Amino acid sequence: MSGLSRRVGLGGGSIIGGRVTMALDPGALRSLATRRQVVLVTGTNGKTTTSHMVAAALRSLGLVAHNASGSNMADGALAALTDALDAEWAVLEVDELHLAGVASATDPAAMVILNLTRDQLDRAAEVRRTAAAIARAVVAHPQTTVFANADDPMVVWAASEAVRPVWVGAGSVWRSDTVGCPSCGRSLTESATGWHCECGLTRPSPSWWLEDDIAHGPGVSSRLALSLPGQFNLGNALMALAASVTAGVEPEAAIAKISALSRVAGRYARIQYGRHTLRLLLAKNPAGWAATIAMLDGSRPVVVAVNAREADGRDTSWLWDVEFERLVGRVVAASGERAADLGVRLSYAGIPHVTNTDPLAALAEFLEGEVDVVANYTAFHSLYRRLERAG
Amino acid sequence: MLPDSEVSVCTLLPDVLGTYSDGGNARVLCSRLRWRGIPARQVTCTVDQQPPTSCDIYLLGGGEDTSQLFATEWLRQHPQLCNTLADRSLTLAVCAGMQILGVSMADVHGREHVGVGLLNITTTPRRRRATGEVVSRSAEVGLLTGFENHRGATELGDDVRPLAHVLSGVGNGDGRFGRRATDGVRTDHIIATYMHGPVLARNPALADHILASVTGSSLTEIDLPDQRALRESYLAGSASQTMRGGKRG
After folding, report:
1. What is the dihedral of CA A56, A61, A62, A63, to 10 degrees?
2. Is the ipTM of this complex over 0.90?
3. Domains identified in chain B, total number
4. Across all residues in chain A, what is the average pLDDT?
């Protein structure tokens, strides 16, 4: 069945395989998850990267089932478990709105909650509602260890009822969506020790934190020399380290595995295409862009590809909360199915650009050499599939 | 105003009503002024600041339910600003920004909250959230495109003109059998709509309509790359949607 889905071009194959099994047996996920140690990874940005890090580290303990391609709803989880029946461990990245459902079926040993910001408002409506859905999943699983980002007020609010919390100071590059207190709506106060609110919601003191690139945790004080770029990925690595060391992986082994990861489901991959070397990056919302823009290299040309399919969110308004002004001075191409929306945004940012809905055709305008390509969800996957076929 | 004097554009409460990227409207207005050689000043006013009361244009954006009540309370605490909005400046209010300027709005639990009272409109919750593309026609600026994402049904008072009539989408949600729905509100000092996008990025004619009425002069055309393609992609098919009665959801 997965073979069929791949042949008809519907995706990596895992989603269709999972959906068919679910249709046949709604209890399938539950029975496939029993007698496994399940770790669920959720949050707006960094799910795929962090779950790859946790899976890599846990492999030093045994076989790991993992939805590596990023199919992160119940059917993707099911497909991952079906593909690795012998695995004692399972690491599943889960869409924020599907966490409660997947958790109730899999009874997870651990949940990792990375960050909660605006993404696909046409689907999720409000960040607070997403956080409330996660809070319900946390409350329903008092036995689950909850690894939660202490620097993200929305995450702290969502995880505040956790019976077994582990607070991780994973950082936060984007706070514009949480200027008000998630609990009461007042303004949050920033101080040297973090943020707090009059109502009592306060940054918990983390048991894992970063000091530059040194990770500190119970019995751990080690440098993280990641192959992946960016401050954002240091935060992801710290979350992954906390979860895998708590699960029983030796810290040095976990750090080695996490640091060695150099590409994640095509993200951060360097691919030769004709006379260009492409570095592929995925950014799908303002917070993701804030993290990604810091990873863009010097004066390289940039191709930005934006789609607005269901999986991306139909509304392109979010482009106006991305600081494209920071690309001034570079050679830029606006691309993807919503190249025109992006092109208008770039013009208002004062960035001359070429416009071509096809990101590979847009490259024709660039001199040979290295090019950064930043695409949102479906634009990234369709480009990556084309490059794999071409390669 | 004098031909060479500066136009000031103030975004109110971007920290509270900034969820739907409507802040882009300020950038569009200021850029379109500067491209024409007219000086523009972009100002933002957050909750902890004293609002300026002498700007030419004020912008209010969309926000979540809790933020909306917070913003209403804040505006009521600044009566001088409300006086300016009522009869001196020009305001573009989007989504929640429109609702809070009304007489009242009811939340999803049916609780009624008093609005700022600058517009004779009342908003009650819809059964279902209205999420999707909207196309409307305004007598003054022609076809408008935007993205709506709200749960409000907004009823206009008898003396209130809508901004536009909806060709596809929900808008104010006041469509009835045989009567086209409207979107937004238009008074001498306030233009309001449910359209995000941001609305002025998608509809340069509306941006220029606002700028022309503030500067009192007619403005030169601006031909922005990609703008035509953007509008065509959203407006294509609005004719066929009209055939279906212009209602959805």
Report:
1. -30
2. yes
3. 1
4. 90
